[in-house]
Design a protein that fits this description.
alpha/beta; Rossmann fold; 8-stranded mixed beta sheet; 4-stranded antiparallel beta sheet; 11 helices; binds adenosine-5'-diphosphate; binds magnesium ion
Length: about 325
């Protein structure tokens, strides 16, 4: 058994842009453009970046909820990119997703019992009585009560619905959970309750998380390591502690400038981002961040920086740093 539960190598997802009279391909959106990372067993890897940088596409294409354009995904030693559709369906019980908006993904006409039972039925697990018992158990596990089984999604608050979304993801005892902005739609006061629940579940059930957020302060406490994405690429990846105390990439510094520091004495270089995120259909040459970077040089405009380890597993893609 390897230490890594998930290995993502050179993952790409390109969407063709069609147009013209003949509806031919006139361009391509590079939603995810050569992303590599690993997640260790029991670890939480945070993935952050502004909206549109490719976080959801990364999460969904590694689960093959959308088909990657290129790259390899190893899950528990199995190359899932090579599995047939049928084999992938079986594999997916071990790798589940929690969505940002559970309401959109919960069938409004089904009660909670039916919603939670469904994955078990799809995978042919248990008798009807066993499945119903598992639903009762799972409701307790996520901090709801057995009487909630009879209710419908609209009868719950946002926080409760996300608990149901988490319960559904856990019904098949998965190893990996891809949590795609699971608390972004919730009130701040409810966010920490759901984050605490996820941490308790991770400890009790030995789960591994890929935790996606657009907000660095949300991933900080839950993540062991954090990857920062910009325009379809990971530009920096290191431990949570390192990322917050010693950020290297100018983009990471800019994101952190916007997050209040708990330590008022902490000296932090303030980087204010200029302009908007460029379009992934027409990304800048060289380092794609050069159009907004205060340190950009000729080299940055011309050459794409390699994503490399500059020491102790601190990866950065930036010409300012040479290993
Ligand atoms: P994030 O989750 O970081 O906000 P996404 O992964 O949703 O970003 O999107 C990354 C980029 O890919 C965006 O520019 C988005 O517009 C584009 N994109 C996402 N899905 C599609 C699609 N089905 N067709 C075309 N472009 C898409
Ligand atoms: Mg998203």
């Amino acid at each position: 058994m390897t230490e890594e539960l998930l290995v993502v190598k050179n993952l790409k997802k390109y969407y063709p842009i069609t147009g013209g009279i003949l509806g031919g391909e006139v361009g391509v959106v590079k939603a995810v453009d050569d992303v590599s990372f690993t997640v260790k067993r029991g670890e939480t890897l945070g993935l952050v970046g502004e909206s549109g940088c490719g976080k959801s596409t990364t999460g969904r294409s590694l689960l093959r909820l959308i088909e990657p354009t290129a790259g390899e995904v190893l899950f528990d030693g199995v190359n899932v990119t090579a599995l047939s559709a049928d084999e992938m369906r079986k594999m997916r019980r071990h790798m589940q997703i929690v969505f940002q908006d559970p309401f959109a993904s919960l069938n409004p006409r089904h009660n909670i019992e039916k919603i939670l039972e469904e994955p078990l039925i799809v995978h042919g697990i248990g008798t009807s009585a066993e499945r119903k018992r598992k639903v009762q158990e799972m409701l307790e596990v996520v901090g709801l009560s057995s009487y909630h089984a009879r209710r419908y999604p609209h009868q719950f608050s946002g926080g409760q619905r996300q608990r149901i979304g988490i319960a559904r993801a856990l019904m098949l005892n998965p190893k990996l959970i891809v949590a795609d902005e699971p608390v972004s739609a919730l009130d701040v006061s409810i966010q920490s309750q759901v984050l605490n629940l996820m941490q308790d579940l991770q400890r009790d059930l030995g789960l591994t998380y890929l935790f996606i957020a657009h907000d660095l302060s949300v991933v900080r406490h839950i993540s062991d390591r954090v990857g920062v994405m910009y325009l379809g690429r990971i530009v920096e990846l290191t431990t949570s502690t390192q990322l917050y105390s010693n950020p290297l990439h100018p983009y990471t510094k800019a994101l952190l400038s916007a997050v209040p520091t708990p330590d008022p004495d902490a000296v932090r270089e303030r980087v204010i981002l200029q302009g908007d995120v460029p379009s992934p259909a027409n990304p800048p040459s060289g380092c794609t961040f050069h159009t907004r970077c205060p340190h950009a040089t000729e080299e940055c405009r011309a050459v794409r920086p390699a994503f490399q380890d500059v020491g102790d597993g601190h990866f950065v893609a930036c010409h300012l740093y040479k290993p």
